[in-house]
Design goal:
CATH superfamily of the largest domain: Lrp/AsnC effector binding domain/regulation of amino acid metabolism (RAM) domain
Shape: elongated
Number of helices: 6
CATH topology of the largest domain: Alpha-Beta Plaits
Strand content: 15-25%
Helix content: 25-40%
Order of helices and strands: EEHHHHEHEEHE
Number of domains: 2
Length: 176
């Protein structure tokens, strides 16, 4: 049975309440209006819904409903990203780790609990794990690389790259 669709102020058809209840939020597709809302919030995460509505030619209520749905489904998260140098960090680095397969999950769980580790992902290629690190100084980086990481167990090899200068920092993604 197809859910009833009701026209919205923007001319698109929204699924009725029955469809929203039967489709998990993570599986709902983004439409053109959702994409436009995401684009505007990527430019300014604090843009008022009233301004978004004005720019897109729809009601503030429509924007509030859509934005809340995007947040609740995990399609969109708005956060503040501070400048690590202004926070007192002098070392930005990333490391590639080769890990014993049976220890990979344990290593990942451990790394994700460390404040200095800002990003962790599993990857393919010459390494198993990629991680980004911020440290206040070289001593803190040395302790992390030569004491704390080996103490986890299962890390066979590390390759570390210090960032000398950031040329682009962007956490926005093109929205189709």
């Amino acid at each position: 049975m197809r859910a009833a669709r009701r026209p919205q102020e923007n001319g698109s058809a929204e699924p009725g309440p029955a469809a929203a209840a039967s489709t998990p939020a993570s599986e709902q597709r983004l439409d053109g209006l959702d994409s436009k809302i995401i684009n505007l919030l990527q430019q300014d995460g604090r843009m008022p819904y009233r301004e978004i509505a004005r720019q897109l030619g729809v009601s503030e209520g429509t924007i509030r409903f859509r934005a809340n749905r995007l947040f609740q489904s995990g399609a969109l998260t708005v956060i503040a990203i501070p400048d690590p140098f202004r926070l007192g960090y002098r070392i930005l680095a990333f490391a590639l780790l080769k890990v014993a397969p049976e220890r990979q999950e344990h290593v990942i769980k451990t790394l994700t609990t460390w404040d200095e580790v800002t990003y962790v992902s599993s990857c393919t290629g010459r390494a198993d794990i990629y991680m980004q690190i911020v440290c206040r100084d070289h001593d803190q980086l040395w302790e992390l690389l030569y004491q704390r990481i080996p103490a986890i167990g299962g890390v066979k090899e590390t390759e570390t790259f210090m960032e000398l200068k950031m040329h682009k920092v962007s956490y926005t993604y093109p929205v189709p």
